[in-house]
What does this fold into?
Amino acid sequence: MYVLTEYIVRGIQAGSIYGLLALPMSLLFATAGTIDFAVGAYALLAAAVATIIAGPLGIAVAIAAAVTAAAGMGVIFLVLTRIGTKDHIVFALASFGLAVAIASFILWQFGTQAFVRASFSQFWSLGGIRISPQGVINLGLGALVTLLLYLLLYWTDLGRMMRAAAANPSGAELAGIPVARIQFGTYLAGGLLGGLAGIMILYSAGLDFTASLSLTLGGFGAAIIFGITSPLRCLLGGIAMGVAEALAAGYTSGMVTAMVPFLFVLIVLSASNLGGAMAGDRP
Amino acid sequence: MRRLVSLVLSAAAAAVVSSGAALSADAVKIGVVLSLSGPAAVFGIPERDAIQVVMEKLKADGKLKRPIELVIYDDKTNPTEATRMVTQAISNDKVVAIIGPGTGGNILAAGPLALRMQVPLLGPAGTMAITDRKNEFYPWVFRVAPSDRVDVKVILEDMAKSKAKKIGVFFQEDAYGKTGVDFAKEIGATLGMEVVETVSAPYAATDLTAQATRLRNAGVEAVFLQVSISSLGASFVKAANQVGLTAPAYANAGLAQRSFAESVGSEVDGLRVLSIGNLPYDPSEGEAELARLLKQAGKVPQGWGELVGSNGLMTVVAAVNAQGDKEITGVTMRDTIEGLCGYPAYARGKPCFSKDSHDGWAEDSLVITELRNKELKTRR
It folds into this structure.
């Protein structure tokens, strides 16, 4: 029982990163009805920059870099809407292309090195289970950001405008809501959150230039299992995936371990109608 | 007047072209198909860099009996691309030997081509299967590095010295990882050690604490890391530290890279890493010479990729030089390489090929290093 508990604790710590990657997905889906597949690439970019530049300055520059990359995606988005693109899948595919471009840029500029930094060498003990302070910070940050996003979406005017922009873009325009600007801003928020996730990973397990797609897919899985439209569900989805991964690593072996998180997502989506939230009310 | 001028010009041009053609008729063309992008680029780029600087040095010192021309291709760590590049090198560039492709999987994919088109491949990879005698293309593939089995053997022999009986293995989820586990089980048994637990992770795993926990709970006395991805190795060692897995850890040669040593903190000190020589931190005489050449060309030695790349080139050069003025084809290259034993190379150990053994390098080229202060010091 103790062993099981330890795996679950580890999974919760790790899952907060998936949650943080899932939040921009939920935000963008709520506002623009599309997915930004470059979120993993923003995380990778931030981690790479913070590896090169040390300390708090490095973190600040890293997040700025991630937001800049996201701004690039935002501009692509605006250009595509300006020329009349209606199909949301096009934006998603464009973000995929940007993700590949960013990953290639990282390989070119930074090479194949690992992006990882030492964090804490002291560990806390929770009932005999060694917890790293970094893991606690990750979880805390994930919860904090979720709370802030929830407050933003449901308690502020901006949030209401964002939800209106997703539900009925033309109606929202007519009501005087600057839809395009809000959607652009949401892409920037995605860059910020992705960058933050990248920093967290940098100080935890570390990553390298191949990570961007896996991170995006992990975030996407976390976002859709419990419903993409709510920040809290995204965080919980991330934690659930983290726990599934930890239990799989602890109790299964070999190739099964890698399959489990995605099998988990498949099962949850097939078994419940929570997955129906993904379809939204797009015609 | 104009007609005279154009006649003279075309005659001159013909003379230049034909003399140029006469010169390059002598040049032996060698293909270099390495992973210059994709996950294996961390090895492929140093391999190519070393081949280029050594080539320049050999030309400058007049060590080549005939001119050798290198044609370089990128296999993108992709078997389809590797076969395409090998085909192109042989069909378009008419190479008589290929250094590469870059990974075991790519070499296996290109093997049948080498057989069909009769051009030998000199593979810088440890994957056992490439020189398996059961392969139909066995006569056409040579290995210019120690094999994975030899690597694992040297690691386990060092583990056995510290009287460990129960071993745990952490491996990356691919063929390299899986075959490492199989060797560890097999070789461990002959040395009186048992593999009691194995755990694995995909390349881009974000958290390895669960895997480290599992090994710790199994009470292992030594840990073997069959990992070639720097970030995976660093993640695991960090995770092991975090969950209190204190057994001594040994990493296979994939982590003997500068990029790994410099990216980890002091909590990773004491990790033992197998290395092919120790080019960046503790070079032998030959390795130091190669390091000098690299630094002159503005390259920083990264690990053993440069040594293995140079092994491929030195083998080719030895084979070409041995054939004197005779016509060189893929067949003659293959036959000559099979007869080479003990020729100049920068790596330690004595390279030796034969008809029965296409593995040129063995234990004498390997060292166990220990990670201390971001450097890999050779353990005596």
Q: What stands out?
A: The interface with chain A takes residues 37, 39, 41-42, 45, 173, 178, 198-211, 213-214, 217, 229-231, 233-235, 238-239, 241-244, 259-260, 262-267 of chain B (CB under 8 Å). Residues 145 and 286 of chain B are 16 Å apart (CA to CA). Chain B is about 45% helix and 15% strand. Confidence is low (pLDDT under 50) at residues 17-24 of chain B.
